[in-house]
Amino acid sequence: MGQALCICSRSAITIDNKRYYFLQKLEEGGFSYVDLVEGAHDGRFYALKRILCHDREARKEAQTEVEMHRLFNHPNVLSLTAYTFMERSGKCEAWLLLPYISKGSVWSVLEKLRDKGSFMPESRILHILHGICEGLKAIHDKGYAHRDLKPTNVLLDENDRPFLMDLGSMNKARIEVRGSREAMTVQDWAAQRCTISYRAPELFNVESHCIIDERTDIWSLGCVLYCMMMLEGPYDLIFQKGDSVALAVQNPVSIPQPCSYSPELQTLLSSTMVTNPQERPRIGWVLDQIKSLRGSDGTDIDTNRV
């Protein structure tokens, strides 16, 4: 990763006493930008995420994202190479230096398959899903939840190893809601930080007295699995048409038939997308099911790549 490039006249930054050269823009969001940079010291490519901190609360959120990255050292959670906070002209930016995964996100892979009129083989789905679940288990085991799991937040390397990214919405796995005011606070937070078409039902209308736990991620995981099977999320079209996603998620997920995937994989999908969070499985159970579907050695990976 990262061949030598001409760095003449390239703008550069320094993080942790190491110099990096800007190559090109990769993504641009509402309050963040991602640039491709090259390390002058090692010739490797990195993704530089720049978060605009327009107020003290935004800076606190960026600091939380940094802390979440530093909390994990796991092969399926994107690592943080370095970070810094830059103060310029009275404005603050958080700079997060991350590994550059050239293959892109699960969503970009699915888009290519859709454009070719192709599909993702079941063995490949199970391989990717297994890695996603291993990353989620690491997060859940430390008492946190991702809260914004979706195909664009899962990167794939050349061997289809998935990396969970965008940890800015992560918080404590167990949230105890006591009263209508706290319920509205959680609901408003979810509306801002949890992508609507992958958001668990219990986050749309938060009850006044309840416990929200990490099984919000299991619902989102089911949506990601559905997307890998159908090449679109279960509620993407509903959202695009302007219909109510909040209403749609109150009903069991409908798997289009005929379905070319095994009944066992369809059952796994239905098991993750249970409307009542108390009836939804935890990540350990999901992993056991995936291992059973893959076989004892887990080496049944299809070579039909995008």
Automatic annotation (TrEMBL):
What Pfam families would the database entry show? Pkinase
- EC numbers, comma separated: 2.7.11.1
Q: Which UniProt keywords apply?
A: ATP-binding, Kinase, Nucleotide-binding, Serine/threonine-protein kinase, Transferase
GO MF terms listed in the record are: ATP binding; protein serine/threonine kinase activity
The entry's cellular-component GO terms read: cytoplasm; Golgi apparatus
Judging by the UniProt lineage, the source's domain of life is: Eukaryota
What catalytic reaction does the record list? Answer: L-seryl-[protein] + ATP = O-phospho-L-seryl-[protein] + ADP + H(+); L-threonyl-[protein] + ATP = O-phospho-L-threonyl-[protein] + ADP + H(+)
UniProt keyword tRNA-binding present: no
Show the InterPro entries listed in the entry: Kinase-like_dom_sf (IPR011009), Prot_kinase_dom (IPR000719), Ser/Thr-specific_kinases (IPR052239), Ser/Thr_kinase_AS (IPR008271)
- Which EC class, in a word? transferase
CDD domains attached to this UniProt entry: STKc_16 (cd13986)
Residue span(s) of domain Protein kinase: 20-293
- Has the keyword Nucleus been applied to this entry? no
This chain's protein is named non-specific serine/threonine protein kinase
Species of the source: Danio rerio
Q: What is the lineage of its organism?
A: Eukaryota, Metazoa, Chordata, Craniata, Vertebrata
